[in-house]
Amino acid sequence: MKIGELAEFGGVTAKTVRYYESIGLMAAPQRRANGYREYDEEALDRLRFIRDAQASGLSLAEAGEILRMKDEGESTCAHSRALIDRHLADIDAQIASLLAAKAELTSLARRADHLDPAGCTDPHRCQVLGLDLPAHSKV
Which of the residues 46, 87, 105, 124 has an alpha carbon 20 to 30 A from that of 9? Predict the structure, then answer.
């Protein structure tokens, strides 16, 4: 199949296929007599793996490492599991950070609900945030 067909069947663009070739994720294909790239089902399987790995949150480098290991006949199960565990830990940390930010913003919103805007007379403080504001400087 030609590059356009491969890209279509793989759910990416031809430009993406050429990029994957340029960084070594996809092998350089055979060429037809007219110079067109010729891909086989193995290339399509590899392309779909890369696409699916990225959709699962793996980086191109991580997908490439798994492919390299497979190409060399190594088992990838433990390596893939470690990658997944690391990504899960990263997501858990992001969730915790977002929940902490949400709690802080919720607290500030409740505080704002109980403040009288008429009481906001100090030009150097924000009563909602409880913070001193920087002095206005003239440049």
Answer: 87
